[in-house]
Each structure stands twice: as structure tokens, then as C-alpha cells.
Amino acid sequence: MTTYEWITTFMVPVTGVISWLAGARMRRNENLRTLQTTIDLLVEKNKELYEEILRLRQENDTLRDEGVKRDNEINELKHQIEKLNKQ
To answer: Is the overall model pTM greater than 0.70, yes or no?
Structure first.
């Protein structure tokens, strides 16, 4: 078997297989990179939404406290009006 025959018979298919494997690995790595980028974006968005939820809960608690105060003041004013009407 001559060198040329050996190269065309064995080396070309082996080189093709090696190239295909290397390409497949690169495609997987690119896919993983894309997935990681997507995950990073989702984590960042989730973090922002969580902070917004915390802010809104604090605001809700403040508004609830103010509402309770106002209800107490209204009840107190009602009692005072009733006292004045009885006099």
C-alpha cells in the first residue's frame, strides 16, 4: 500500500470524524453559553422583581397602619359627636 492510498483510505475518514467531534463540542459549548446567559438574565430580573415586591410590601404595611390610625381617629370623632349631640 502506497502512502497516498494509506492517506486516502484511513486518514481522510479519521480526520472527518475528528472534525465532526470537535464541531459537536463547539456547538454544545455555544449552547451552554447561551443557556447560561439566559439564566443570568432571569436571575437578574428575578432579583429586581423580588426587591420591588419587598418595597411594595413595606408601602402596603405603611398604608395599612395609616388606615388603622384614620379609622381610630374617625371612631374617636364619632364618639365626640355623639357626646356633643347628647348635651
So the answer is: no
